[in-house]
Amino acid sequence: MYTVETTKCARKYLDALDAITRNRLVEAIREMSSDPFSGDVKKLSGHHLLYRKRVGNFRILFEVYERRLFVVIVDVASRGEVYKRL
After folding, report:
1. Distance (Å, rounded) from C-alpha 30 to C-alpha 78?
2. What's the rounded mean pLDDT across residues 54-66?
3. Do β-strands 50-55 and 70-78 pair in parallel, antiparallel, or remain unpaired?
4. Is the pTM of this model over 0.90?
5. How far, rounded to the nearest angstrom, does the alpha carbon of residue 60 sit from its chain's CA centroid?
6. Dihedral sign for Cα atoms in the order 3, 9, 14, 15
7. I need a labelling partner for 79 at 20 to 30 A (CA). Which of 28, 43, 56, 65 fits?
8. What percent of the chain shows pLDDT beyond 90?
9. In this predicted structure, what is the pLDDT of residue 36?
10. What is the DSSP pairing of strand 70-78 with strand 58-65?
11. Among 20-24, 58-62, 82-86, which is the least confidently predicted range?
12. By the 8 A CB rule, do 74 and 50 touch?
């Protein structure tokens, strides 16, 4: 099992969403504790540890630290916003 933590930026974005969308994204984040690479996950080019997980029109950007079994949710946003924040 991986330990999953979210940054303040990601939590703030999730809190501002409607309940249905937030629940869908939170469920996707919870599933990452068993396998962060399941689903539609791709490594972002040009970033050493950064991956993205697609959940509908939203993206979850995260880093995985395999040795410590640790996942950090760096950012969550819509597809149009998330890559501008990098």
Report:
1. 19
2. 96
3. unpaired
4. yes
5. 3
6. positive
7. 65
8. 90
9. 96
10. antiparallel
11. 82-86
12. yes
Asked whether the predicted pLDDT for residue 86 surpasses 90, the reply is no
Spatial contact of 34 and 1, defined as CB atoms under 8 Å apart: yes
Instruction: Compute the half-sphere exposure of residue 49: CA atoms within 13 Å on the CB side of its CA.
Output: 11
Contact 80, 12 (CB under 8 A): no
DSSP string, 19-46: HHHHHHHHHHHHHTTT-TTSSSEEEPTT
pLDDT of residue 79: 93
Residue 11's nearest CA partner among 57, 72, 60, 75 is 75
pLDDT in tens, 23-53: 999 999 999 999 999 999 999 998 888 999 9
Q: How many residues does the chain have?
A: 86
